[in-house]
Write the structure tokens for this entry.
Amino acid sequence: MIYTKNSAEIELMREAGKLLHEVLEQLRLMIKPGVTTLEIDQTAEKLIRGAGAIPSFKGYEGFPSSICASVDSEVVHGFPQDVPLKEGQIVSIDCGVILNGWQSDSAFTSPVGNVSDDLKKLIRVTEECFWRGASQAKAGNRLGDIGWAVQQHAEKHGYGVIRDYCGHGIGREMHEDPGVPNYGKPGRGTRLSAGMTIAIEPMIALGTWKVFITDNDWTAVTRDNRPCSHYEHTVLITEGEPEILSLPGARVGGHLHE
Ligand code: MG
Ligand code: MG
């Protein structure tokens, strides 16, 4: 069941998205060699609760933390650890908030200090994949248009598109219908309509898209152990350009190049 949001509900989701953006920008500033992902998690929880919101991940189906922190070949659902980040790694930080009953979900991947050009490019292309997908997220298009736009851009660069995880509807619940795959065929799948709110979240691997789950039963890691990048925003479908709720003021057109 897809829940289309009315204007009052959308306004509340804007507020949740704005808060999440502010939290993630604070977390981004913390990322450097020597910091632990546990410290980043503790800061996230403090900032979220301090703003009168709830960290949606904490306790979600037993997840232990307020952020997912996935390092290098970890794809998603990495547990924050009391282990210092090291120069040359990449780390994705995924976080969600509930503010006044409404959810927002967003993730980014950051270099730790100086990283190789290959990793810089992986992060950049993953963000480009998001913007390519978001450019198709408008009323009248279909889910396959989003997935196709993400997939063709990633594969053009020789990267693997993670299949086992995808984006999702979001609103009062973190995960609502529909699922939003990062692959697909143009013109196929559920038709998008104004007022739908979805998380678009490409997970793009330097090598294979195949993953395994570690023995914590949560964390997904690439089978070839090569790095993976993740980028996500909560997006409102409109008749025109989508509104990026977790990146207030962003314009899709301003992020499209090549
Ligand atoms: Mg997320
Ligand atoms: Mg998500």
Summary: Residues 7-255 form a domain with the Creatine Amidinohydrolase fold (CATH 3.90.230.10). The chain has four helices and 15 strands. The chain has a mean pLDDT of 97.
